[in-house]
Design brief:
This protein has 76 residues and is mostly helical. It contains two helices and no strands. Helix content is 95%, strand content 0%.
């Protein structure tokens, strides 16, 4: 039992050092912040493309329909 206690006691300073370094390290927090910003930007872009997509689609279809109608009217 005494040997086991000495082995464990020998690793305590190393464990404390690891815990101390983990607490000081803020790179994970920065990564999470960047991920949240990227997610927000994706949501904004998807919303904008969805709104513009239907408008552009409607305008395109109206233009094509108009062009076909004009071509048919001038032919007949």
């Amino acid at each position: 039992m005494r040997v086991r206690t000495q082995i464990i006691a020998g690793h305590v300073p190393a464990l404390r050092s690891v815990v101390r370094n983990f607490r000081r390290d803020e790179s994970g927090a920065t990564s999470i912040e960047y991920a949240l910003i990227a997610t927000l930007m994706c949501v904004i872009v998807i919303g904008a493309l969805t709104a513009l997509g239907t408008t552009l689609s409607d305008n395109f279809l109206l233009g094509v329909t108009g062009a076909i109608s004009d071509a048919m009217a001038s032919k007949g």
